[in-house]
Amino acid sequence: MFALSAKKSRVRPVGLPETEGGRVLPRPLRRIVRFLVSLAAGRIHIPRHTGSIATALFLGATGFYGMSLGGHSQDFAQASTTAIGFAIEDVKVSGNRETSEIDILERLGLDGTTSLVALDVKDARKKLSELPWVEDVAVRKVYPGTIEITLKEREAFGIWQHGSDLSLIEKNGSVIAPLRDNKFSTLPLFVGRDAETAAAGFSDEFDNWPEIKSRVKAYIRVAGRRWDLRLDNGIVVKLPEHNVPRAMDTLATLEAEESILERDIAAVDLRLEDRTTVRLTEGALERRNKMVEQRTKDLKKAAKRT
After folding, report:
1. 202: exposed, middle or buried (C-beta count within 10 Å: 0-12, 13-18, 19+)?
2. Hey, which residues does 155 pair with through a beta bridge?
3. Which CATH architecture has domain 158-285?
4. Among residues 33, 40, 238, 244, which one has the fewest Cβ atoms lying within 10 Å of its Cβ?
5. Where are the beta strands (DSSP E) in 192-264?
6. pLDDT digit string (tens) for 48-63?
7. In what order do the strands lie in the sheet with 216-222?
8. 152-201, pLDDT tens digit by residue?
9. Quick check: helix, strand or coil at residue 98?
10. Residue 263: which of 241, 292, 285, 295 has the closest Cα?
């Protein structure tokens, strides 16, 4: 009896030589080898101009990569899209009262050749947000060549004088911009260090005395602790550090009963609760001294006659 044995025959793929030990190449390499064998045998047809196209694509990719490394890809995109009709021709701005359109155009760098496609909206918003009056801004592209810009501007609450400088401030004390003209001359003036941060809260305290508040031309911060008021006729009202309403009630009473703010005085001192001190102007003081001197002389003459 004979023992029969058989080995499963291995079929080698056409055109694939076996490696040492009868092993077949890995699958990824087989495909590459098949392609190269077919290409060499002429079984694969390559269209005409494939080499030229491939070369052009390679050179184009190389050029684009070089522009990216050199930071010129944005310039290329802008020039190419502008040339085909996407140049920015119209800029529509709304919500601007204090921000000029010229400042907006300069900040965005628009020169008539800027491409709408290449414009970075996020970068444009960032640049416009840096303008002094701009609180918020929206930028929208409208193809083929229009930009719509909507601004929300900050609101001036008062004027802050620090040293010799004058600045416009918001109600929260934030500085908006330097004061350049008389357009905001009707706003209240806050003078001194830290005056801008305490301005709104302090000014609101005077709503209960509207007649006096309407006459205040300057709120002067003293030593970071208390305030003086300078009225429209030059009188200075010295307020206490605490209990300002008590002092204002006293001043309102004196004005109602004696018209103290219409008199020839320089200052009214309300810092002490138990007394009010009035300082005369130099002219009024001189006249008063002359009157006192004359009265003294008259009394002496009357005494001699008796």
Report:
1. middle
2. none
3. 3-Layer(aba) Sandwich (3.40)
4. 40
5. 216-222, 226-231, 236-238
6. 656 666 665 555 555 5
7. 175-178, 165-169, 158-162, 189-191, 216-222, 226-231, 236-238, 265-269, 277-280
8. 999 999 999 998 899 999 999 999 999 988 899 899 999 998 899 989 88
9. coil
10. 285
88 CB-near residues (< 8 Å, 6+ apart): 110, 112, 114, 115, 116, 119, 145, 146, 147
CATH number for the segment(s) 75-153: 3.10.20.310
The answer to whether the beta carbons of residues 142 and 148 sit under 8 Å apart is yes
The answer to whether domain 75-153 and domain 158-285 are alike in fold is no
CA-based torsion, 235, 240, 242, 246: positive or negative: negative
Domain ranges of the chain: 25-60, 75-153, 158-285
Q: Give the C-alpha distances (Å, rounded to integers) separating 183 from 98, 168, 186.
A: 11, 11, 8
- pTM, to two decimals: 0.65
Q: What is the distance between the alpha carbons of residues 250 and 243, in angstroms, rounded to a whole number?
A: 11
